[in-house]
Specification:
Shape: globular
Strand content: 5-15%
Largest sheet: 5 strands, mixed
Distance between the termini: 42 Å
Strand order of the largest sheet: 15-18-19-17-16
Number of strands: 19
Number of helices: 27
């Protein structure tokens, strides 16, 4: 049987070409290296039967070698089936058991005994008791408590509205790598007929009212109506204050909800009071429910309510002031954020939760867009008193990231003048070599001899590529190349075209601290803060801004990497301060051992994308992280980064 921990190990081994150390895998799974050795042995015995093996590479770790790819692929397809035991999934990780317990308690009609949970999870009673500590912490977010009654068992206690939100969150199983959602069998098995009928009713009314909703929004609405159906059958109803109920009833979304409810009542023979119709209406209010606009209205700001438009423009103004992304006037972005913001504010107003399955990928692959979204969230909070959570920020970052990509498409090629003193033949050779290498990024405005250079207007040229030294003082940047252009010349030109700075300049020796014996997140941040204070690079209140950023969303990105930073720039230079640890520590919701404190220059207009790309590569590569964690001096640390950068 393939345990959850063994699956994590197998996945990591499949993602890399070089060996992974036992310590790295142990830290990732929060177990000892001895436990990992035992897991590896069992895993090796298993994969050997399916066209692969796990090799132990002396002093380097473990490596997966696949001999028969087709056979191994079939094995992967059967992994889920092999994890079944008497129809139940075996939950080896505490997080999986915690989710199961919440799901089980929230869908139970009565009490559930501790012994029952232990039997269902194939663990001891004491293990369940330990898991319950974290379960209670999670449920605090919904203001729900776990009531324990002797001889009866456990039961959830809280407001009906919050109980339903909790059920909806844990009854839906989301694929971590895609946006696919499935409904857990605990609810589906009881209401197969209701699921089909309600889904058909929703689709029918969406089409009838000419509404555009995403598949995820439809699924979310479906699950909430099915939950309402079950709870009403059991005599449990939501409660709204009368003034709040009046506000909902007067919304257009209530009228749509009323039509859906009428059909549900008819087909499932159940009565929904107005307060339950209001419950469905608030889910429509929290959904980006668009009436399909015609082609000419797609970028019309009139689609956005005036109060929302003011917030969006203030958000983009703040982002441009801090990060200079040049997206403040992107009309497509303004519309997208405006349409997203209204339901997001409604979700906050009614205490609704939203899950973003792409959150970790967004943070890893679009870190600058995510930081910009955090600034946007602060503006929203200031103007509406709505606190935007990490999942919502991820969706805002997606829109900002799309605008950044759009902007990069619209960048005009740099205008280039070729200067050559070796004659027409050499000049033509340089011309065609540059044209073939930089087809979309350089526009060649002309070829000239050195003495004729002054006839060109400097305002029409961004770059001169010259095969001879230019001693005269000119305001245009010059890249000198050989008459016969080689790879090094192409690289020099490329560096200018991409406006790249040397990535290594961010990793200065005095700011790299290796193999430190620090045991908590607080200790690490305090240590790095004191180092920066020695160089008088930060003010006394610097850490307040770092903790403010941590409070908004965790800066640990997986693979033992955390990249903390102030919520807004606090330094006069851009630089990174690195600290690797001898042992893994808890950093919020994930383990960390490689900490990189990021500081961006106030009002910076630098192109920081190369730096973000490098940080993204570190976050996404187990191999690089391993090598950096093993480095015990600055030279070997930099060598790892240089080898990658080649």
């Amino acid at each position: 049987m393939l345990t959850t921990r063994m699956r994590v190990i197998l996945k990591k081994l499949m993602l890399v070409d070089s060996p992974l150390t036992g310590r790295f895998l142990a830290n990732l799974n929060k177990v000892t290296t001895r436990t990992i050795r035992e897991d590896i042995k069992k895993l090796d015995d298993l994969v050997k039967k399916h066209g692969a093996e796990i090799e132990t590479v002396i002093s380097k770790g473990y490596k997966l070698t696949i001999y028969n790819r087709e056979y191994f692929r079939e094995f992967l397809k059967d992994v889920v089936k092999n994890e079944r035991k008497k129809g139940q999934i075996i939950y080896h990780l505490p997080q999986d058991r915690e989710e199961y317990i919440i799901r089980r308690l929230s869908t139970s009609k009565g009490y559930v005994k501790l012994e029952q949970l232990a039997d269902e999870l194939y663990v001891s009673k004491s293990t369940v008791q330990n898991d319950l500590k974290q379960v209670k912490e999670i449920l605090k977010e919904y203001s729900i408590t776990v009531q324990s009654r002797p001889n009866y068992g456990l039961k959830l206690q809280g407001e009906e509205l919050k109980l339903r939100f909790c059920m909806a969150e844990y009854i839906v199983e989301r694929d971590k790598n895609t946006e696919k959602q499935t409904f857990h069998s605990m609810l589906v098995s009881r209401h197969k007929k209701a699921f089909t009928i309600i889904h058909n009713i929703i689709i029918e009314h969406i089409i009838f009212h000419n509404i555009s909703m995403s598949d995820i929004s439809i699924n979310n609405l479906l699950i909430h109506i099915v939950i309402a159906y079950e709870r009403i059958k059991n005599g449990n109803y939501v409660v709204f204050p009368s003034n709040e109920l009046r506000q909902i009833v007067n919304q257009y979304e209530f009228a749509v909800a009323k039509k859906i409810v009428e059909d549900v009542e008819t087909q499932l023979h159940i009565q929904f009071p107005d307060v339950e119709t209001a419950y469905i209406a608030i889910h429509l209010l929290g959904t980006k429910m668009l009436f399909k606009p015609n082609h000419h209205d797609v970028l019309n700001e009139k689609l956005i309510a005036s109060d929302i438009l003011i917030i969006v423009k203030k958000m983009l103004e703040k982002i441009d002031d801090e990060y200079h992304l040049g997206i403040k006037y992107d009309k497509e972005l303004i519309i997208a954020l405006g349409l997203h913001l209204k339901p997001a504010i409604n979700r906050y107003k009614y205490g609704m939760n939203i899950r973003n399955p792409l959150l970790q990928d967004i943070k890893k692959k679009y870190p600058l867009a995510f930081e910009a979204a955090i600034l946007a969230g602060l503006v929203i909070e200031e103007m509406t008193e709505c606190k935007i959570n990490e999942n919502e920020l991820g969706y805002i970052a997606l829109h900002i990231g799309a605008a950044m990509e759009r902007k990069s498409f619209n960048i005009e090629p740099k205008r280039c003048l070729i200067v050559c003193a070796s004659g027409f033949g050499t000049a033509q050779l340089i011309y065609y070599k540059i044209k073939s290498e930089f087809r979309d990024s350089l526009h060649i405005v002309g070829i000239t001899e050195l003495y004729r250079i002054k006839k060109y207007n400097s305002n029409d040229i961004d770059l001169i590529i010259s095969s001879v030294p230019i001693e005269a003082e000119i305001s245009i940047p010059v890249v000198q190349v050989n008459a016969i252009i080689g790879d090094s010349d192409i690289q020099k030109i490329s560096n200018f075209v991409k406006d790249q700075q040397s990535i290594m300049e961010y990793f200065q020796k005095q700011f790299v601290f290796l193999q430190k014996n620090l045991t908590t997140k607080t200790e690490v941040l305090e240590f790095l803060f004191q180092q920066l204070k020695i160089f008088e690079l930060v003010d006394n209140d610097y850490l307040e801004y770092v903790y403010k950023r941590e409070k908004i969303a965790s800066t640990v990105y997986g693979n033992l990497v955390a990249i903390p930073h102030p919520v807004t720039p606090q330094t006069d230079e851009t630089f990174l301060t690195v600290c690797t640890l001898t042992n893994v520590i808890d950093w919020g919701d994930k383990p960390a051992q490689f900490i990189c404190l990021l500081n961006v220059k106030r009002n910076s207009q630098e192109d920081l994308q190369p730096m973000y790309d490098l940080l993204g590569a570190i976050v996404n590569s187990e191999t690089i992280v391993q090598q950096l964690l093993k480095a015990n001096d600055y030279a070997s640390f930099i060598k790892v980064l240089n080898d990658y950068n080649k």
